[in-house]
Amino acid sequence: MRKVGSRLYVCLIFLFLYAPILVLIVFSFNDTETASRTVWSGFSLKWYQRLFEDRLILEALRNTLLIAVIAALGSTVLGTMAAIGINSMKKLPRRIMMNVTNFPMVNPEIVTGVSLMLLFVFAVGLFGGRSLGMGSLIAAHITFCLPYVILSVLPKLRQMDPNLYEAAQDLGCPPVRAFFRVVLPEIAPGIVTGAIMAFTLSIDDFVISYFTSGTTQTLPIYIYSMTRRRISPEINALSTVLFAAVLVLLVIVNVRQAKDRPRKREKREGESA
After folding, report:
1. What is the mean pLDDT of each run of 10 residues along the chain (273 residues)?
2. CA angle 83, 257, 82 (to 5 degrees)
3. What integer pLDDT is reported at residue 270 of this predicted model?
4. Distance, CA of 196 to CA of 210 (rounded, Å)
């Protein structure tokens, strides 16, 4: 009886979480000229067709993907370097750096967005140039993605045998080559996971982007601007596309992690034998 109750409880939680998304997806195929969420008029793909014929939406999509790719690459490189540096620190400095790293993750996004906006405006006052735009968006996205990359790479560094790097150097391998031949393959799953997380977070972000975008529009900002006017069923189609993209990325991350577990188990068993 207790198991039945616990399963019912879990089902109700998932229903509460995903029922609104399911309704949104279903009505993105609704053949209607209004954004009705209660009347089903028939199946149609016309809102997806109109979505990909809208020049403003396509421009926002291009901006979003460009920012996400650059932010993911930048935060992955910087985050991997930071994780290696933090891992090599002593206990007390490492704890301090981990607290500094975790702070942006628990800090309210609106505080981060406003502070970054003020920073960019202040920097423009000192050095000149454009205050807010594509550059400020990319810098802001790299900033809030960095902690997630660091926390994805650090566990892989801790799992790695610290003597491997030194052994490679003892065998005549230069430090840089030893890093790319020995360390990088060991921490590659963490780097890939961090990069995918950074890409997903960048696509999904609204609050920080809203304060640092200037006149540049991303998809979340464009969706918000659409809701302030007459609500179009294109929002349902656009939200469905975003949800599907994020879902695919999360599935890729989980599949990679599931494949890594048997390899780690075999490696441990081989080392113990």
Report:
1. 81 87 85 65 84 86 92 94 89 87 86 90 74 87 93 88 80 82 86 89 90 87 77 79 81 74 59 52
2. 5
3. 55
4. 22
Distance CA 51, CA 32 (A): 15
What HEC string does 202-215 produce? HHHCCHHHHHHCCC
- Main-chain dihedrals φ then ψ at residue 30, nearest 5 degrees: -80, 130
pTM of the shown model: 0.80
The token duo for 21 is 């998304």
CA distance 23 to 17: 12
pLDDT at 267: 57
CA distances from 175 to 168, 170, 184 (A): 8, 10, 12
- CA triplet 62, 225, 17: central angle to 5 degrees? 90
Cα–Cα distance measured from residue 47 to residue 114, given in angstroms and rounded to the nearest whole number: 35
